[in-house]
Design brief:
Elements (H helix, E strand, L loop, with lengths): L2 H6 L7 E5 L10 H15 L3 E6 L10 E4 L7 H9 L9 E4 L13 E6 L3 H5 L5 H20 L2 E4 L13 E2 L21 E5 L8 H12 L7 E5 L11 E3 L5 H10 L2 E4 L8 H8 L3 E4 L3 H6 L7 E2 L5 H10 L1 H14 L5 H12 L2
Helix pairs in contact: 2-12, 6-10, 8-11
Length: 353
Protein backbone atom coordinates (compact mmCIF):
# COMPACT_ATOMS: atom_id res chain seq x y z
CA UNK A 1 0.00 0.00 0.00
CA UNK A 2 1.39 3.43 -0.92
CA UNK A 3 1.83 6.17 1.69
CA UNK A 4 -0.82 8.19 -0.13
CA UNK A 5 -3.29 5.32 0.08
CA UNK A 6 -2.47 4.81 3.75
CA UNK A 7 -3.24 8.43 4.55
CA UNK A 8 -6.50 8.35 2.59
CA UNK A 9 -7.71 5.35 4.56
CA UNK A 10 -7.20 7.00 7.94
CA UNK A 11 -10.51 7.84 9.66
CA UNK A 12 -11.41 11.52 9.90
CA UNK A 13 -11.00 12.57 13.50
CA UNK A 14 -13.90 14.32 15.23
CA UNK A 15 -13.35 17.94 16.21
CA UNK A 16 -13.80 19.92 19.39
CA UNK A 17 -15.71 23.05 18.38
CA UNK A 18 -16.43 26.15 20.45
CA UNK A 19 -19.34 28.29 19.25
CA UNK A 20 -20.06 31.85 20.33
CA UNK A 21 -23.61 33.17 20.25
CA UNK A 22 -25.09 35.74 22.59
CA UNK A 23 -28.51 34.43 21.54
CA UNK A 24 -30.12 30.98 21.90
CA UNK A 25 -33.79 29.93 21.61
CA UNK A 26 -33.99 29.54 25.40
CA UNK A 27 -33.72 33.30 25.90
CA UNK A 28 -34.38 35.06 22.62
CA UNK A 29 -36.60 35.01 19.52
CA UNK A 30 -33.73 36.23 17.32
CA UNK A 31 -33.11 33.90 14.38
CA UNK A 32 -29.34 33.69 14.84
CA UNK A 33 -29.85 31.81 18.10
CA UNK A 34 -32.11 29.24 16.44
CA UNK A 35 -29.60 28.72 13.62
CA UNK A 36 -26.72 28.25 16.09
CA UNK A 37 -28.81 25.72 18.04
CA UNK A 38 -29.65 23.73 14.90
CA UNK A 39 -26.10 23.81 13.51
CA UNK A 40 -24.53 22.79 16.83
CA UNK A 41 -26.94 19.86 17.17
CA UNK A 42 -26.19 18.71 13.61
CA UNK A 43 -22.43 18.86 14.20
CA UNK A 44 -22.84 16.71 17.32
CA UNK A 45 -24.86 14.20 15.29
CA UNK A 46 -21.93 14.13 12.87
CA UNK A 47 -19.64 13.02 15.70
CA UNK A 48 -18.09 16.29 16.89
CA UNK A 49 -17.98 17.78 20.37
CA UNK A 50 -19.59 21.23 20.45
CA UNK A 51 -19.85 23.76 23.29
CA UNK A 52 -21.87 26.96 22.84
CA UNK A 53 -20.83 30.03 24.85
CA UNK A 54 -23.88 32.22 25.40
CA UNK A 55 -25.60 34.68 27.70
CA UNK A 56 -28.83 32.67 27.31
CA UNK A 57 -29.57 29.66 29.53
CA UNK A 58 -29.29 26.07 28.21
CA UNK A 59 -31.82 24.91 25.64
CA UNK A 60 -33.90 21.92 26.71
CA UNK A 61 -32.95 18.82 24.74
CA UNK A 62 -29.81 20.32 23.18
CA UNK A 63 -27.17 17.75 22.18
CA UNK A 64 -24.27 20.17 22.59
CA UNK A 65 -22.57 21.49 25.70
CA UNK A 66 -23.44 24.89 27.14
CA UNK A 67 -21.12 27.45 28.72
CA UNK A 68 -23.07 30.22 30.41
CA UNK A 69 -21.51 33.69 30.33
CA UNK A 70 -24.19 35.64 32.15
CA UNK A 71 -24.49 39.40 31.67
CA UNK A 72 -26.61 41.94 33.53
CA UNK A 73 -27.29 45.64 33.12
CA UNK A 74 -26.88 47.87 30.07
CA UNK A 75 -24.76 47.26 26.95
CA UNK A 76 -24.79 43.52 27.59
CA UNK A 77 -23.74 42.45 24.10
CA UNK A 78 -20.67 44.68 24.21
CA UNK A 79 -19.73 43.47 27.70
CA UNK A 80 -20.31 39.88 26.56
CA UNK A 81 -17.66 40.42 23.88
CA UNK A 82 -15.20 41.68 26.50
CA UNK A 83 -15.94 38.73 28.79
CA UNK A 84 -15.01 36.32 25.99
CA UNK A 85 -11.42 37.62 26.13
CA UNK A 86 -11.05 35.84 29.48
CA UNK A 87 -12.22 32.46 28.16
CA UNK A 88 -9.60 29.79 27.48
CA UNK A 89 -10.42 28.28 24.08
CA UNK A 90 -7.09 26.44 23.74
CA UNK A 91 -8.65 22.97 24.15
CA UNK A 92 -10.74 23.41 20.98
CA UNK A 93 -9.80 22.68 17.38
CA UNK A 94 -12.04 25.40 16.00
CA UNK A 95 -13.85 28.52 17.18
CA UNK A 96 -17.01 29.43 15.29
CA UNK A 97 -18.36 32.84 16.23
CA UNK A 98 -21.83 34.06 15.28
CA UNK A 99 -21.14 37.43 16.89
CA UNK A 100 -19.10 39.22 19.56
CA UNK A 101 -15.63 37.90 18.71
CA UNK A 102 -14.17 41.22 17.59
CA UNK A 103 -11.78 41.44 20.58
CA UNK A 104 -10.33 37.95 20.00
CA UNK A 105 -7.51 39.04 17.70
CA UNK A 106 -4.82 36.87 19.35
CA UNK A 107 -4.79 33.32 17.93
CA UNK A 108 -6.54 31.06 20.45
CA UNK A 109 -7.47 28.01 18.37
CA UNK A 110 -6.10 26.41 15.17
CA UNK A 111 -9.06 27.75 13.18
CA UNK A 112 -11.28 30.78 13.84
CA UNK A 113 -14.42 31.08 11.67
CA UNK A 114 -16.89 33.97 11.81
CA UNK A 115 -20.38 34.02 10.28
CA UNK A 116 -22.01 37.37 9.51
CA UNK A 117 -25.75 36.67 9.59
CA UNK A 118 -26.53 40.01 7.99
CA UNK A 119 -25.27 43.56 8.31
CA UNK A 120 -26.01 45.81 11.26
CA UNK A 121 -25.18 48.76 8.99
CA UNK A 122 -27.99 47.64 6.68
CA UNK A 123 -30.35 47.08 9.58
CA UNK A 124 -29.58 50.59 10.89
CA UNK A 125 -31.08 51.96 7.67
CA UNK A 126 -34.43 50.34 8.46
CA UNK A 127 -34.68 50.44 12.25
CA UNK A 128 -36.62 53.11 14.14
CA UNK A 129 -35.27 55.15 17.05
CA UNK A 130 -32.01 57.08 17.28
CA UNK A 131 -30.71 55.02 20.20
CA UNK A 132 -31.28 51.69 18.43
CA UNK A 133 -29.88 53.04 15.17
CA UNK A 134 -26.69 54.16 16.94
CA UNK A 135 -26.40 50.75 18.58
CA UNK A 136 -26.69 49.07 15.17
CA UNK A 137 -24.00 51.32 13.70
CA UNK A 138 -21.62 50.43 16.54
CA UNK A 139 -22.37 46.74 16.03
CA UNK A 140 -21.74 47.26 12.31
CA UNK A 141 -18.22 48.46 13.03
CA UNK A 142 -17.74 45.45 15.32
CA UNK A 143 -18.70 43.18 12.38
CA UNK A 144 -16.07 44.81 10.20
CA UNK A 145 -13.44 44.30 12.89
CA UNK A 146 -14.54 40.69 13.40
CA UNK A 147 -14.18 39.97 9.69
CA UNK A 148 -10.52 40.97 9.99
CA UNK A 149 -9.89 39.07 13.24
CA UNK A 150 -11.13 35.66 12.03
CA UNK A 151 -9.17 33.30 9.79
CA UNK A 152 -12.23 32.87 7.59
CA UNK A 153 -15.36 35.01 7.45
CA UNK A 154 -18.62 33.83 5.91
CA UNK A 155 -21.78 35.70 4.92
CA UNK A 156 -25.20 34.05 4.66
CA UNK A 157 -26.30 35.82 1.47
CA UNK A 158 -24.33 37.47 -1.36
CA UNK A 159 -25.79 40.97 -0.92
CA UNK A 160 -24.56 41.03 2.70
CA UNK A 161 -21.10 41.59 1.18
CA UNK A 162 -22.11 45.16 0.38
CA UNK A 163 -20.67 46.27 3.73
CA UNK A 164 -17.73 43.82 3.81
CA UNK A 165 -16.78 43.39 0.14
CA UNK A 166 -13.53 41.61 1.04
CA UNK A 167 -15.55 38.65 2.36
CA UNK A 168 -15.95 36.19 -0.51
CA UNK A 169 -17.38 33.02 0.99
CA UNK A 170 -21.18 32.52 1.15
CA UNK A 171 -22.70 29.72 3.23
CA UNK A 172 -26.47 30.05 3.69
CA UNK A 173 -28.38 29.25 6.83
CA UNK A 174 -29.58 25.66 7.04
CA UNK A 175 -32.95 23.96 7.44
CA UNK A 176 -33.17 20.45 8.88
CA UNK A 177 -34.79 18.61 5.97
CA UNK A 178 -35.50 15.56 8.14
CA UNK A 179 -38.11 17.67 9.97
CA UNK A 180 -38.91 20.56 7.65
CA UNK A 181 -40.50 18.83 4.65
CA UNK A 182 -44.03 18.54 3.18
CA UNK A 183 -44.72 15.27 4.99
CA UNK A 184 -48.20 13.82 4.58
CA UNK A 185 -50.07 16.86 5.87
CA UNK A 186 -53.07 17.96 3.79
CA UNK A 187 -53.38 21.68 3.03
CA UNK A 188 -56.03 23.58 4.97
CA UNK A 189 -59.56 23.24 3.60
CA UNK A 190 -59.85 27.00 3.11
CA UNK A 191 -57.32 29.49 1.65
CA UNK A 192 -54.67 30.21 4.29
CA UNK A 193 -51.69 32.50 4.71
CA UNK A 194 -49.04 32.03 7.40
CA UNK A 195 -46.83 34.71 8.98
CA UNK A 196 -43.95 34.14 11.43
CA UNK A 197 -42.44 37.20 13.11
CA UNK A 198 -43.34 40.26 15.13
CA UNK A 199 -46.37 42.49 14.79
CA UNK A 200 -44.22 45.61 14.99
CA UNK A 201 -40.65 46.41 13.96
CA UNK A 202 -38.97 45.34 10.75
CA UNK A 203 -41.02 42.11 10.35
CA UNK A 204 -44.06 44.35 9.66
CA UNK A 205 -46.77 41.94 10.76
CA UNK A 206 -49.20 44.80 11.35
CA UNK A 207 -48.85 46.04 7.77
CA UNK A 208 -49.48 42.52 6.46
CA UNK A 209 -52.58 42.10 8.63
CA UNK A 210 -54.15 45.30 7.31
CA UNK A 211 -53.23 44.50 3.69
CA UNK A 212 -54.81 41.10 4.14
CA UNK A 213 -58.03 42.53 5.59
CA UNK A 214 -58.30 45.32 3.00
CA UNK A 215 -57.14 43.59 -0.21
CA UNK A 216 -57.47 39.82 0.22
CA UNK A 217 -60.61 39.23 2.28
CA UNK A 218 -62.75 41.36 -0.01
CA UNK A 219 -61.94 39.00 -2.92
CA UNK A 220 -61.39 35.75 -1.00
CA UNK A 221 -63.91 35.95 1.88
CA UNK A 222 -62.99 32.62 3.44
CA UNK A 223 -59.22 33.32 3.50
CA UNK A 224 -57.44 33.28 6.86
CA UNK A 225 -54.18 34.88 7.96
CA UNK A 226 -52.55 32.84 10.74
CA UNK A 227 -49.87 34.77 12.61
CA UNK A 228 -47.15 33.15 14.74
CA UNK A 229 -46.42 36.23 16.83
CA UNK A 230 -46.44 37.30 20.46
CA UNK A 231 -46.86 41.07 20.29
CA UNK A 232 -50.15 41.44 18.41
CA UNK A 233 -52.93 43.63 19.94
CA UNK A 234 -56.16 42.17 21.29
CA UNK A 235 -58.25 43.70 18.52
CA UNK A 236 -57.39 42.22 15.12
CA UNK A 237 -58.56 42.82 11.54
CA UNK A 238 -61.18 40.50 10.11
CA UNK A 239 -59.87 37.05 9.18
CA UNK A 240 -56.68 37.27 11.27
CA UNK A 241 -55.85 34.60 13.86
CA UNK A 242 -52.94 34.94 16.30
CA UNK A 243 -51.25 31.67 17.32
CA UNK A 244 -48.71 33.03 19.78
CA UNK A 245 -45.41 31.18 20.13
CA UNK A 246 -45.29 27.61 18.77
CA UNK A 247 -42.98 24.69 19.34
CA UNK A 248 -41.04 23.26 16.40
CA UNK A 249 -43.50 20.46 15.60
CA UNK A 250 -46.47 22.83 15.76
CA UNK A 251 -44.71 25.37 13.53
CA UNK A 252 -43.82 22.71 10.96
CA UNK A 253 -47.47 21.63 10.87
CA UNK A 254 -48.53 25.24 10.23
CA UNK A 255 -46.01 25.57 7.37
CA UNK A 256 -47.30 22.35 5.82
CA UNK A 257 -50.98 23.35 5.99
CA UNK A 258 -50.48 26.90 4.68
CA UNK A 259 -51.30 27.68 1.07
CA UNK A 260 -49.05 30.74 1.17
CA UNK A 261 -46.32 31.98 3.51
CA UNK A 262 -45.68 35.72 3.76
CA UNK A 263 -43.00 37.62 5.69
CA UNK A 264 -42.83 41.30 4.56
CA UNK A 265 -39.67 42.30 6.47
CA UNK A 266 -37.97 45.57 5.66
CA UNK A 267 -34.66 43.75 6.15
CA UNK A 268 -33.47 40.14 6.46
CA UNK A 269 -29.85 39.06 6.13
CA UNK A 270 -31.11 35.65 5.06
CA UNK A 271 -34.61 34.99 6.39
CA UNK A 272 -34.71 31.39 7.61
CA UNK A 273 -38.56 31.30 7.68
CA UNK A 274 -38.58 31.68 3.88
CA UNK A 275 -36.43 28.56 3.50
CA UNK A 276 -38.43 26.66 6.15
CA UNK A 277 -41.71 27.49 4.41
CA UNK A 278 -40.35 26.41 1.03
CA UNK A 279 -39.07 23.13 2.47
CA UNK A 280 -42.54 22.42 3.92
CA UNK A 281 -44.32 23.12 0.64
CA UNK A 282 -45.77 26.60 1.05
CA UNK A 283 -45.66 29.17 -1.76
CA UNK A 284 -43.60 32.14 -0.52
CA UNK A 285 -44.45 35.84 -0.84
CA UNK A 286 -42.04 38.48 0.45
CA UNK A 287 -40.99 42.07 0.09
CA UNK A 288 -37.72 42.41 -1.87
CA UNK A 289 -35.32 42.59 1.09
CA UNK A 290 -31.76 41.26 0.84
CA UNK A 291 -32.53 37.82 2.27
CA UNK A 292 -35.78 37.25 0.40
CA UNK A 293 -34.17 38.15 -2.92
CA UNK A 294 -31.45 35.55 -2.32
CA UNK A 295 -33.66 32.75 -1.00
CA UNK A 296 -36.23 33.18 -3.80
CA UNK A 297 -33.58 33.75 -6.49
CA UNK A 298 -34.85 37.26 -7.23
CA UNK A 299 -38.46 36.06 -7.27
CA UNK A 300 -37.87 33.06 -9.55
CA UNK A 301 -38.77 30.60 -6.78
CA UNK A 302 -41.23 32.79 -4.89
CA UNK A 303 -43.12 36.05 -5.34
CA UNK A 304 -41.55 39.41 -4.46
CA UNK A 305 -43.83 42.44 -4.15
CA UNK A 306 -43.54 45.91 -2.60
CA UNK A 307 -45.31 46.37 0.71
CA UNK A 308 -48.28 48.23 -0.78
CA UNK A 309 -48.89 45.42 -3.32
CA UNK A 310 -48.62 42.43 -0.99
CA UNK A 311 -52.37 41.94 -0.88
CA UNK A 312 -52.57 41.69 -4.68
CA UNK A 313 -49.74 39.12 -4.78
CA UNK A 314 -51.33 36.99 -2.06
CA UNK A 315 -54.77 37.16 -3.69
CA UNK A 316 -53.34 35.93 -7.02
CA UNK A 317 -51.68 32.94 -5.39
CA UNK A 318 -54.77 32.00 -3.39
CA UNK A 319 -57.07 32.12 -6.43
CA UNK A 320 -54.78 30.71 -9.15
CA UNK A 321 -54.15 27.02 -8.47
CA UNK A 322 -51.64 26.65 -11.32
CA UNK A 323 -49.59 29.66 -10.23
CA UNK A 324 -49.60 28.54 -6.61
CA UNK A 325 -48.60 24.99 -7.58
CA UNK A 326 -45.74 26.21 -9.76
CA UNK A 327 -44.50 28.58 -7.07
CA UNK A 328 -44.71 25.84 -4.45
CA UNK A 329 -42.75 23.40 -6.65
CA UNK A 330 -40.06 25.96 -7.45
CA UNK A 331 -39.66 26.81 -3.78
CA UNK A 332 -39.46 23.17 -2.76
CA UNK A 333 -36.66 22.58 -5.28
CA UNK A 334 -34.84 25.74 -4.16
CA UNK A 335 -34.98 24.63 -0.51
CA UNK A 336 -32.61 21.77 -1.32
CA UNK A 337 -29.84 24.40 -1.50
CA UNK A 338 -30.38 25.18 2.18
CA UNK A 339 -30.36 21.79 3.91
CA UNK A 340 -28.77 21.85 7.34
CA UNK A 341 -26.79 18.75 6.47
CA UNK A 342 -25.04 20.40 3.51
CA UNK A 343 -24.41 23.59 5.50
CA UNK A 344 -22.80 21.61 8.34
CA UNK A 345 -20.56 19.77 5.87
CA UNK A 346 -19.33 23.05 4.40
CA UNK A 347 -18.51 24.38 7.85
CA UNK A 348 -16.68 21.16 8.70
CA UNK A 349 -14.37 21.80 5.77
CA UNK A 350 -13.66 25.31 7.08
CA UNK A 351 -12.93 24.07 10.60
CA UNK A 352 -10.31 21.72 9.20
CA UNK A 353 -8.76 24.52 7.18
Amino acid sequence: MTAEHSQESLPIQPLRIAMISYYLPSGSKIGVGYQVHELANELVRRGHTVDVFSDCPPVDGALYGHRHIQMQGALRTFRFALALRKVDFSSYDALHAHGDDYWLWRRRVPRHVRTLHGSCFEEALHIKGIKERLRMVLLGFSEVLASLVADTTVVVSPATRRWTPWVRRVIPNGVDSTRYNPGNTVKSSHPSVLFVGTWGGRKRGEALAHQFADSVRSLVPDAELRMVTQDAPDELPDGVTVLGRLGDSELIEEYRKAWVFCLPSSYEGFGIPYAEAMACGAAVVATPNVGARYVTEEGHDGVLAPLDRLGDAIERLLTDDDLRGATRAAGLARSEEFTLQSVAARYEALYRG
